[in-house]
Amino acid sequence: MSFLLTRWLSGSGLLATSAGLLLLLTLLMVLLNSLLGAAVPAWLVGTPLWLAAILLAPRIKRAQQKQIGILLVVGVAGLIFGGLNGTDMRYFLKALEGNQSLLAMLIGVSFLRLVALAGIAPEEHLPTGARVLQKTLFGTHLFASVLNISAVLIVGDRLAHARNNQPLLPAQSMVLLRAFSTCAIWSPFFAAMGMTLLNSPGAQLGVLVMFGLPLALVALVFSAWEIQRNPAAADAMGYPLQWSSLWMPLVLALLVIVSHLIWPDTTVLTLVTLIALLFTLCWSLLTRRGQGLIDMGRHVKTGLPGLCSEVALFLGAAVLAAGVAATLNSLNISLAPAQFGAFEACLTLLVLIGVAIAGMHPVTSVALAGSLIGPSVTDPNLFGITLLMGWSVGVGLSPLSGVQLSLQARYGMSARKMAWANRYYAALMIPLCCITLYVYQWLMG
Question: Is the pTM of this model over 0.85?
């Protein structure tokens, strides 16, 4: 009976609206705590997240429910084991916090979709050719650096529509995949950066971007070169985004960097969250006036509930990390290496890529790496760069990553063909990342 009631409420939109308001409440509480020094306990701020996740659970796909369920079961088991063996309550409270700063950032950034969609012309004629695909690659990369997977789906849907919803060509699939995965190595608006900053305390955004952005550029240039050499690209349609949709990522990135220089004591996650929210509010009021506020209200009721998978996944990762830490603490075990230099960073990178290819979500692997290796890290920037590299390359190579699964299901992308197409990309990026880690140690050591 309760299940039927839940389904009815979900269908009526009441659960979605309630969950959206809870997520908005979380965002506001995180900002108040960070900017105004409000003394709201972090575990209490995380409570609306858990309530929203419970309300939105029926929306999550079954496969993701299983994955998140495993994270929760293993994490709770670790917390119970640790509690029975003498650990204090801080690990339980850490689990309740639920990566709230990162999720607040994702909630804030989701509002930018209202601005981005205004610059898309869904019915314009799509040209063909390698050069068009190259422009699509770089444009989608900038677009995705702020909007995450939403940008990929916007461009992918337009390409699929132009092909009468037939499977995308391999060259088109590669453009979408590379445009997205390379964002993870540098973008301040990506979940990868937020998770890295949380698990590598003390890492500096400027340093991470300084070393990540050139790697992303190399990856994109190499991908553009592969497109040029692909004979099938001549007949493939692209979607070269116009300035009307690309100005936003550039302006936002500049605002984050300048704000971080002016207020260095304010965390990057807080700055990104605040800037995304204020930017959308100002744009809405200036361009759409009263209708803009209505659009933002509608986004709270219908857009924010669409983050159900991300919310549940990050909550599950928080529980898992807390459970592992509690267990290791109770047994007085440390799996951290004696030191963490470039060699250890390269080994960590290979492990992160390996577990990503095996199907582990980077949220989970980064959280575990932070729990296990964090205690031995003396240079958080080196560790942060490693985590970003592992996330980006792992997502790009793994046929089981979330973005690849989405492209396979939505656009008919062949996992086997994409794995084969990535062979040269892997041969370039993995050694290049390792070289970059040694260069960083040489420059900063």
Answer: no
